[in-house]
Design a protein that fits this description.
With 518 residues, the protein is of the alpha/beta class. Helices cover 42% and strands 13% of the residues. The longest helix is centred in the N-terminal third of the chain and has 17 residues.
């Protein structure tokens, strides 16, 4: 069988590399379509190249979705508006930060006009249904259709799908026109709650666990029989990991003293924790203010996508504190074996792992170390205001030790440094992994379960082709006239050719100055 797997960018190969390899071993052909390449990260480039060399049944090609940032086509603008409306639903009332982010993609006048509808659930659903009907009626770009026709796969699967403007939806709609089964592989723990709604229908949605299945069914209205719980293939290689270096060797490598326990602070993304370096500086000073922790060594690990630059005054002051080390200074994707070993060792050899809200907390569960967070007022929108943060507090009885009092937080860290809570921390981690990462059993890898689900999808008989109806040109012209003032569409662009565009801030793009002849 041939499976077309469309990934938004090359970084997602780390989520599905093991599944691609297994499908190839089973005799299937995988066509990997990559929308964007992370050219700035050589480790990801190398991992993708190695995958292409090592897997005989794999063929790779570039995607056809747009890379436009400042302005997008009308279909993307409508999907952004639907994402904003989705975040107004009662079940997402706590998701304040994602709602604010989604609002930046909608013109202010449209947000104001939508506020009245949001006061009534039925009115909101009616508005959503009408906008969705309009979005589905727009023509599909020929480039998506042509790619799917050329490859003629038995199934079309995408990930993560849930991104601004939903550029990958074209692959699914082209497949549906041709009667080809469609699937979405949910890539990460936060995808179903902080991005936007699913644009379907989709024949199969694969998720890690029962919590994500509830999110797919209750928040995205996916029929439960279309959701498969597979566990998290991303973490199969983490089970059974052991440290690559001794504690003494690792501490020597990063510049920490080896004769004392150290605390590891794992940074979050810029969206979750803006200006986090200033927060870390305050946190270090508060921790060091404790008599018991006055000299505790501290290792700060930057988020992979956010360098802690020494041009920042808080970072300079942080690096100047004795016993505080920032490593690796520029951040690092744990893609290569060496990078993964360095990352794992940093957590394994620590006395405790501390952060705001980050995937590194899940990663740390594999070391059995205690994981701690302070529920700070400044991060309330991206801790308790983010639905996925609840997984850290609830799955398996709760992974993270969370406190509201800074003094209680420091006391918990002191117990961790003394080793008083090591047994409880290991128990918490095992329960979390069994509930959230491998619900099928800690000794049962997830990769075969995802491969099974994709095989089953690809083996389904094709439906009769269902071509997308071409709207009458008169209707499109009328629609353009109606939506130009509403969405600030640049005049003269054709909606029929999917060239109508809208800026993120709702303003019309500035016209380019005429070129000068030589």
């Amino acid at each position: 069988m041939r499976i077309l797997l469309a990934l938004r960018h090359s970084g997602y190969t780390r989520h599905f590399g093991s599944t691609i390899e297994l499908l190839s071993e089973r005799g299937h052909e995988v066509v990997l379509v990559v929308g964007k390449h992370w050219r700035q990260d050589e480790s990801i480039q190398g991992a993708v190249a190695k995958l292409g060399l090592d897997v005989p049944g794999l063929r790779m090609r570039d995607g056809v979705e747009t890379h436009r940032r400042v302005e997008r086509d009308l279909a993307s603008a409508l999907r952004n508006y639907l994402a904003y409306l989705w975040f107004l639903e009662p079940g997402l009332a706590r998701a304040k930060k994602p709602r604010e982010r989604s609002s930046g993609n909608v013109p202010p006048s449209l947000r104001t006009a939508s506020a009245a509808a949001a006061e009534n659930a039925l009115s909101l659903r009616f508005l959503e249904s009408k906008v969705a009907e309009l979005e589905r009626a727009l023509p599909l770009a020929d480039s998506y259709r042509q790619l799917v026709v050329e490859e003629n796969p038995d199934a079309v699967v995408v990930s993560p799908l849930l991104e601004r403007g939903v550029p990958q939806i074209g692959y699914l709609r082209a497949a549906r026109e041709l009667g080809i089964p469609t699937g979405l592989c949910v890539a990460s723990w936060d995808n179903l709650t902080n991005k936007g709604p699913l644009f379907g229908p989709i024949d199969l949605v694969t998720v890690w666990n029962d919590s994500q299945k509830r999110e797919a069914v209750e928040l995205h209205r996916v029929p439960p029989e279309r959701v498969a719980v597979t566990g998290a293939p991303l973490y199969d290689k983490w089970f059974g990991l052991s440290p690559a270096r001794s504690r003494e060797a690792f501490c020597r490598h990063v510049g920490l003293p080896s004769d004392a326990p150290y605390l590891l602070y794992v940074c979050s993304s810029g969206f979750i924790a803006p200006n986090e370096e200033a927060w870390i500086l305050r946190w270090v000073r508060h921790v060091r203010g404790s008599a018991e922790l006055a000299d505790v060594p501290i290792l700060v690990r930057p988020h992979p996508q956010k360098e802690l630059s020494t041009e920042s005054a808080p970072v300079r002051r942080l690096a100047a504190i004795p016993g505080v080390v920032i490593h690796p200074r520029g951040g690092q994707q744990a893609v290569t074996e060496g990078a993964l070993a360095d990352y794992f060792d940093s957590m394994y050899h620590s006395a405790a792992v501390i952060g705001v809200n980050t995937s590194a907390m899940i990663d740390a569960a594999f070391t059995g170390r205690g994981i701690y967070t302070l529920l700070a007022r400044r991060f309330q929108p991206t801790q308790e205001g983010m639905l996925h943060f609840g997984h850290l507090l609830q799955a398996g009885g709760g992974l993270v030790h969370a406190t509201r009092s800074a003094d209680d937080h420091v006391e918990a860290l002191a117990r961790a440094v003394r080793g008083d809570d090591s047994e409880e921390a290991a128990t918490r981690a095992q329960r979390f992994l069994a509930d959230f990462i491998r619900p099928q059993g800690l000794d049962q890898p997830s990769t075969p379960r995802l491969a099974d689900a994709l095989e089953s999808l690809a083996s389904r008989p094709r439906r009769p082709p269902h071509p997308h109806p071409d709207p009458p040109r008169e209707w499109l012209d009328s629609l353009a006239a109606d939506l130009e003032p509403l969405f600030h569409i640049r005049k003269g662009r054709s909606i029929a050719s999917s060239k109508a565009v809208v800026r993120r801030d709702g303003r019309r793009p500035k016209a380019k100055p005429p070129s000068r002849s030589a």
